[in-house]
Amino acid sequence: MHRLRTCAARLRPLTACQMAQSPSQPRPAQAPLRTFPQPTRHYTAPVAAEPFLNGTSSNYVEEMYYSWLENPKSVHKSWDIFFRNANAGAPPGAAYQSPLPLGGDLRGPGLGQAVVGSQPSVEKLVEDHLAVQTLIRAYQIRGHHVAQLDPLGIMDADLDSCVPTDIITSSDKLGFYGLDEADLDKVFRLPTTTFIGGNESALPLREIIRRLEMAYCQHIGVEFMFINDIDQCQWIRQKFEKPGVMQFTLEEKRTLLARMVRSTRFEEFLQRKWSSEKRFGLEGCESLIPALKTIIDKSSENGVENVIMGMPHRGRLNVLANVIRKELEQIFCQFDSKLEAADEGSGDVKYHLGMYHRRINRVTDRNITLSLVANPSHLEAVDPVVQGKTKAEQFYCGDADGKRVMSILLHGDAAFAGQGIVYETFHLSDLPSYTTHGTVHVVVNNQIGFTTDPRMARSSPYPTDVARVVNAPIFHVNADDPEAVVYVCNVAAEWRATFHKDVVVDLVCYRRNGHNEMDEPMFTQPLMYKQIRKQKGVLQKYAEKLIAEGVVTRQEYEEEISKYDKICEEAYARSKDEKILHIKHWLDSPWPGFFTLDGQPKSMSCPSTGLNEEELENIGRVASSVPEEDFTIHGGLSRILKGRAAMIQSRMVDWALGEYMAFGSLLKEGIHVRLSGQDVERGTFSHRHHVLHDQNVDKRTCIPMNHLSSNQAPYTVCNSSLSEYGVLGFELGFAMASPNALVLWEAQFGDFHNMAQCIIDQFICPGQAKWVRQNGIVLLLPHGMEGMGPEHSSARPERFLQMCNDDPDVFPKITEDLPVRQLYDCNWIVVNCSTPANYFHVLRRQILLPFRKPLIIFTPKSLLRHPEAKSSFDEMLPGTHFQRMIPDDGSTCKNPGAVKRLIFCTGKVYYELVKERRSRGMEDTVAISRIEQLSPFPFDLVKAETDKFPQAEIAWCQEEHKNQGYYDYVKPRLRTTTDQARPIWYVGRDPAAAPATGNKKAHLVELQRLLDTAFKLDAFKGHS
C-alpha cells in the first residue's frame, strides 16, 4: 500500500521545495556509468483475476493504462475507476470496483464511494510502470546534479556533494521505486515524455537507466523541467535524450580543433610577449571561442545577419581577435606603453573597448555584422545596453520577430549570481516594448570570483538560477569537453531560433591564473590551484583524443599551431609601426554619414527650432482629439482634451502641449521618438495621456500621436517595468544604434535616477571620452521642492553638475558659434526649463544639432498646471530658439541703474520669486533672471545681464539646500563672469543631509524664510 501511494505521489510534478528536500546521499566524485548484475528472468505480466479482467493479457492492461493516461474517458468506466483508485493510493486488492447499476455513483475513493476487492498482480503492473515513469522524470529533473561538470574533478557545480536519492547509483537504490535487481531485465513501455528509446517503444529497465545516464549525467547537465510549456520540454528532451545525437563529422572535429588552437595559442602568445601585463586571459576556458563561433554559425544559418554582444573583461581580447576578427596588430599595439593617445577622448583600457565588424561567415558564406559593446569594469552593467541596442537594430530594419538581429551576452559566474541588473535584464526579455526575441547567455563559470569561493558568493545551487524566473533552459557543460560545448551551443542557438526566448549555456571551467596575470591565487585557493597546476590543457587533451581517433595526425596538429603562431608573429611586427592610438578603430556603433554633409564635416550651427503656426495648430488638433471612431474615453480625460483644444484656440500651450508639439513635429520630419519609463504613457502626474484607453473594451488603446500624417515616423511610448538601472541602460543602448531618433527615459520621480547611477556614471557621463561614442539620450527627471518629502523632491542636480567638464575659471571666447561650440565641447547638457516653449525648443534642438550629446532635463511637477507656466505660439514660431538664459524683461529694464539686486535662479522657484516680488511691490528694484541651461554655462549671456545692472548686488537663489542643488556649480562661474569686486550672495536653505523635509508646514516655513532673504535688501550687509 505504501509503495503504491509513494509511486502515485511521485507521478505528480515535484515542487521546488520538494526537490530541495529530496533525500540524498554523498555524491561520488566523477562517478563512471553504473552497471548492475544481469538477471536472466524476463518480465511477463500475470493475467488479471478480477471478473472484469478474466481472459485479458498484461499487454492489454498496459495498452488500456496508457489510453487512460491520455484520456480517462477513452476507457470503460470500470477501468477509469480502477486506474484512478490505484493512482490515488488505494491499497493492494482494493483498486477494483464493480460496476454500479445504471445511474449509480461512480465516484472514486475520497469522493464518497468505497473501494472493494482487486487483484494484486495487476496493480503491480501499473505500479511498476508508474515507478519507471517516475524514475525517468527524476533523471530529467535532477540528473544534472550528478553530471560530471567540473573539469578539475574536485568541485560540485551545484555546491552539493550529495546524490539525490531518486537517482540510481546502485541496485539497492531500486527499492526507492518499489523495484529490485530482478526487475532490471523487465521490458517497460516508454512514456511519450521521453526519447531515450529512439525508434524503440519499450526497453529493459537496465537499458533505460543507462540511456538516462548517457543523456543527463555525463559532461552535460540540463535544467529544463521547470519550464511550463510541454512543447518546449519535449523539444529539449529530443535534443538530449535521443541515442547518438551528439555526433560530429571528421570535418567538424577538425574545425573545432583549429578553433581551439587559435583560442589557446593567442593567449600563449600574449603571455610570451607581455608576461607582466594585465590582459585577463581565457586560460582554463579556451572552449569559449568555439562556443561563440558555433552560436554565430548556427544563428547565421538560421538567417541572423547582425549579432550584438556584451561581455566582461575576461577573454575579451581573445573574443575580439578570434570571434569579431579585429586586426591582431590593432590589439597588440595596445600593449605598447609608448603609444601616444589621439587627441579625441581619454580612452580606456584595452579590455574595455568595443568593436564593430562586418564580414563573411565562412561556415555559411553569408554576410554577418558583429558588434562587441564597450563597457566598464562594472560587471553586468552592459547587459541592458546590449539589449537596447539589439532592440533598436531590430526596430530600424523591420525585424519584428528577431530573426535577423540577435544578442549574445557573456557573464562571469560570480557576477551572474551577484548583480541585480541580471535579474532586471531578464525581466525585460518578454515585455513587448523591450523584448529582443531571445538572448543566448554564456556564463564563463570559473567556480570562483576574484578571491571569493562560490560557497560564500551565492545562496543558489548554480550561479545561473536567476534565469529560471523567465523559464529559460539552462545547459551546464564541462568546458574541458569541446565537443559537448559545441553541441550545447548548437542546441542553444536552435532554441533561440525556434522559440525566440532566452537560453543559458553554463561553461563550467576554471581560471588557470589569478584574477589577472599579476595576481597570486594560491593565497586564498591553495587546493584548487594545486590541482590546476597539474591540469592538462584542454587543447592538448582534445588533440590527443583526435589523434587517437585518427581524425588528424600529430604532424597536421603541429602544422596548425605553427600556422597560427606565424600569423601572430607577423601581426606583432606590423603593430610596431603604430605610433598613435586611434580610438575610432574601436567604435562599436558607427554612424556612417551622420557627421558629414556632401562629404564635408557639418558646420557648428543649429537652425531655428521654431515651427510655423499651421504646423502647431495641426499637431494641437491631434493632441486634443481621439482619432479612432467608437472609442470611449474617461470623462476626466474628455475635459483635459477640451482644455487642450481651448488652449490651441487661444494660441497657448502648457507643459504637456509643448512636449506634444516637439514630439509631433519630429515625427512628421521622419524622426523616431521613443519615450520610456515607469508611468510615461499617462505621466506620473497625470498630465501627458499619450495613450488613451477605451473604457468599454479591454486592452483597446489609441495613440493619437501615431495619427499625425501618413508618412510620419512611428512614436513609441511604453510603460516600463519597475526598474531604473535596467531600463535606463536599455534606452541608452537603443539611442546608441542611430543618431536619427529622439530617445527619452523619464524617472517616476527625479531622485529615482540614483537607482541607475551606474549607467549614468559609467556610460552616459564619460561615454564619449572613454569610447568616442556619442549618444543623444534624454533624461527627464521631475524635480521641485513642494513639501513632498525627501524622496520626491530632488533629482540631485548637484551630482550631474559636478560631473560636467566645462572649466569654471575660464571665460570662453565669444564668437557667433559659441552656443553650439560649447555644446560640442561638453560631455553632456544640463537644463532646467521654466517655460513650455523652452522645453519644446530644447527637445527639437537635441535632434537638429550636428552632433549628439546626452541631455539632462530637470522637469517640473507643480508647473505642469501652473497658470503662469504657459507659452504663446509666438515663442515657438520660425526664427525662435532655445533660450539658454531668460533675462528679466520687466520694468527693471526701463531704469537698470535703479536696480538694487539681481537674482539669478533656475526652475520653478522663479514663479515663487516673481509672486513674492509682486506682493512686495519691488518690480523696479529687484531683477530676476533665469538660467535655463546650466551646463555648458551661458557665460556670455550672464555677463550681458550683470553688465546691464551695474549697481545691483548679485544673488543666486535656489530652493534646494546650500550643499545641494546648483550653488556650488554656479558660484565660481558667476565669479568668473562678473567683476570680482561684486560678491555672489546665496539665497536658499541651509545645508542639510536630506534633500527635503517631510513636513509640509516646515517646508512652507523654509520657503518663506528664503523668500524673505531674497527681498530684504539689507539682508546681506556685513556678510561676504
From TrEMBL:
InterPro entries: 2-oxogl_dehyd_N, 2oxoglutarate_DH_E1, DH_E1, KGD_C_sf, ODO-1/KGD_C, THDP-binding, Transketolase-like_Pyr-bd. Its cofactor is thiamine diphosphate; Mg(2+). It is found in: Mitochondrion; Nucleus. Residues 653-866 form the Transketolase-like pyrimidine-binding domain. One of its GO terms (molecular function) is oxoglutarate dehydrogenase (succinyl-transferring) activity. Its EC number is 1.2.4.2. It comes from the Eukaryota. GO terms for biological process: glycolytic process; tricarboxylic acid cycle. GO terms for cellular component: mitochondrion; nucleus; oxoglutarate dehydrogenase complex. It catalyses: N(6)-[(R)-lipoyl]-L-lysyl-[protein] + 2-oxoglutarate + H(+) = N(6)-[(R)-S(8)-succinyldihydrolipoyl]-L-lysyl-[protein] + CO2. Keywords: Calcium, Glycolysis, Isopeptide bond, Magnesium, Metal-binding, Mitochondrion, Nucleus, Oxidoreductase, Thiamine pyrophosphate, Transit peptide, Ubl conjugation. Belongs to the alpha-ketoglutarate dehydrogenase family. NCBIfam families: 2oxo_dh_E1, PRK09404.1, PRK12270.1. This is 2-oxoglutarate dehydrogenase complex component E1. It comes from Scleropages formosus.
